Amino acid sequence: MQKILITGSNGLLGQKLVYKLKADSNVTLIATARGDNRLVDKVGYTYEPLDITDLSQVKTIFSRYMPDIIINTAAMTNVDACETEQESCWLLNVTAVENQLSVLEGLMQEHSEYNPHFIHLSTDFIFDGTHGPLDENEQPHPLSYYAESKLAAEKIVQSSKLNWAIARTVLVYGIVDNMSRSNIVLWVKQNLEQGKTINVVDDQFRTPTLAEDLADGCILIARKKAKGIYNISGKDFLSILEIAHLVADYYKLDKTLIKASKSSDIKQPAKRPPITGFIIDKAIRELGYQPHSFTEGIRFLEEQLNKMSK
To answer: In the prediction, which pLDDT does 129 show?
Structure first.
């Protein structure tokens, strides 16, 4: 029986992990997030409110459960907010990681048989975007404060005494309970359905990732006790404009409403890397990772939306 603790269980990836892992009879699941549990289905796992920026709370919960695997999905991911609220960004993206690792290392010293596996989520934004797609050996060069915080966290994880893995991902999209956030697919679909013109950049390239695929990648890392860095993303290397066109094609919406624009036309506090996207050969080879194509991902979302509307 594996005890798996998830941080950030109210988030997009956190929710997908909870729903996948709670169905596994070999897993005892502890879901944690700040505040109340926002998942609709509250059966099959234990929920604990946990603020990972508070060291004493981390000590209390980690000591209580002694998890075999920790999947750290909690982060401040709003890139522009991170640029303008740097203290909050550092606290959640770096200090919170230090808190978890220091508590786990302390528990390892107290209990010689305890050997936890820490799986940390990271991002393509740690790169400068001069070229892509990228493999796991690419040298990071962050352009934004968000990216700096995520790279700092990676370095802390890599220098820890724990067994660790880092799952880097790209442009995650999916449907969450209590739909409080949109994603690129829904944004394009909703605007075009309303007959609105949208400006979409044609000079940013990504490998968009279905949230369920990312969850599967994390679970494969956990099951195989894999260590090191893994690129866990979608397999299609697309410009943001191509992404918008594929959404329009799928729903048979008017593509003439999509206007190509340049990143320089958009005024945002934080810089984005123009070209990222990941080469996922290592995850396919070592983990057996098999992501959906982007069009399959749209269909997957559509099926979920249809279920929710019934």
So the answer is: 97
Q: Which residue bears the tokens 């404009």? A: 241
The 10s digit of each residue's pLDDT in 105-138 is 999 999 999 999 999 999 999 999 999 999 999 9
- Domains of the chain are 2-180+208-234+277-292 (3.40.50.720)
Cα–Cα distance for residue pair 74/92, rounded to 1 Å: 8
DSSP for 206-224, please give it. Answer: E--EEHHHHHHHHHHHHHT
Helix boundaries (H) for 25-176: 55-65, 79-84, 86-90, 96-110, 145-158
| Cβ atoms of residues 168 and 278 within 8 Å | yes
Return phi, psi of residue 267, to 5°. -90, 105
Per-residue CA distances from 232 to 90, 110, 158, 165, 260 (Å): 24, 34, 18, 12, 28
According to DSSP, the residues that pair with 209 across neighbouring strands are 172
Contact 56, 97 (CB under 8 A): no
Closest CA relative to residue 9, chosen from 56, 70, 53: 70
> d(Cα 290, Cα 216) in Å, to the nearest integer?
9
Length of the chain: 310
Q: Are 247 and 236 in contact (CB under 8 A)?
A: no
